[in-house]
Fold this protein.
Amino acid sequence: MREAEELARRGKLTIFFGAAPGVGKTYAMLEAARVEMSDVGRDVVVGLVETPRPVRHRIAVDRLSLLKRRTIVHHGIKLEELDLDPALARKPQLILVDELAHTNAPARGT
C-alpha cells in the first residue's frame, strides 16, 4: 500500500482545548462537525455530549445524529455513558465525544 493511502486510512484525533468552562469548546467541536458533514460529506454522529449545555449547543446537537447511550446503575444512580460497541459497529467517519476526560462507571448496563 502506498504511503498516502496508509495515511488516509489512519484515524485522527482532534482535541478542542479551552482555558475555562463555557469558553466554547463544545460549540466549536459541533461547528467543525457540521463543516465536515456539509462541505466534505462525511458521516458524523454524536457519541456523547454532556448536558446541560446552553441552548445553542442543544440546537446544534439536534441537527446531528445522536447515538443511543448505555444506561448504567452505579450505587443506585442511573448514569448514561457512551456505548462504544454500537458506535463502532455503525462505522461513522467521525464520532464526536465531549468531556473526554471522563471515567465510565463499572459496566453493569440496563
Remarks:
- Residues 5 and 11 are 12 Å apart (CA to CA).
- The chain has a mean pLDDT of 82.
